[in-house]
Amino acid sequence: MRGKLSWVVRGVAKAVAIVVAGVVFIAVFSWVVMLLWNYVVPPVFHGGTIGYGQAFALLLLCRILFGGLRGWRGAHGHWRRHRWRERWESLTPEERARLRERFMERCGRGMGE
Predict the structure, then answer these.
(1) How far, in Å, CA of 111 to CA of 99, rounded?
(2) Each residue's pLDDT tens digit, 23-82
(3) How far is CA 56 from CA 6, 11, 18, 37, 96, in A?
(4) What is the pLDDT of residue 30?
(5) Where are the domains of the chain?
(6) DSSP assignment of the chain
(7) Cβ neighbours around 34 below 10 Å, total
(8) Lowest CB count within 10 Å: 38, 49, 55, 110, which one?
(9) Residue 76, class by beta-carbon neighbours within 10 Å (0-12 exposed, 13-18 middle, 19+ buried)?
């Protein structure tokens, strides 16, 4: 029982450390965005300065608009590769050859070889 308990405690401690590191990273990144915005935007575009909360909101807005709401580290790309692999496996050898030919016409030599 003692070994299992220490394993659980280490897991919880690691999870707490990851959450704290994430919060610190977001806080520092928001602060850097605020400093850069206040250094560049007012003199160049004659815009106003922003505070820390506005910098965090700007980061969140950029994530929603440009990064989407999917998970971090390319989770969407993994799904896409899996779907293409399923589709590739369902093709007949003739269809695969035609697809390779089309890729080589579009992308040049080296693809599919």
Answers:
(1) 11
(2) 999 999 999 999 999 999 999 999 999 999 999 999 999 888 887 656 555 555 567 777
(3) 37, 30, 20, 12, 48
(4) 94
(5) 1-69, 75-113
(6) -HHHHHHHHHHHHHHHHHHHHHHHHHHHHHHHHHHHHHHHHHHHH------HHHHHHHHHHHIIIII-SSPSSSHHHHHHHHHHHHHHHHS-HHHHHHHHHHHHHHH-TTTT-
(7) 20
(8) 110
(9) exposed
pTM given for the model: 0.54
pLDDT digits (tens, 9 = 90+) for 5-28: 687 888 899 999 999 999 999 999
